[in-house]
Amino acid sequence: MELNLKKNLFRYGKNESLTFGVILALIFFDILIWNIISMGMISVDYRFADNNNCLSQVGSVLNRDIPTFSHYSIKTGKYCTLFQHEYNKAARNEIVIELSGQIQKTQKDINQLDREIRTNRRSLEGNATAYGLAIQEQKGLDLAYTEKLKQIQEQEKLLEQMKQDLEQQKQVFKALPAVQKLTQYARQNSSSISDRYHFMKRLDLFLSYIFAMLFVLILIPVFALLRHRLIKKEKYIRLLLVNHVILMAVLQGIYITVCFILHILPETLLRHLIRFFQSFHLMALWYYIAIFLLFLLFAGGVYFLQIKGRRRNLYKKLIKGKCWSCGARVLDNDFCFSCGEKQMRICSHCHKKTYIKMPYCRFCGRELPEK
Question: pTM for the whole thing?
Answer without folding.
Answer: 0.49
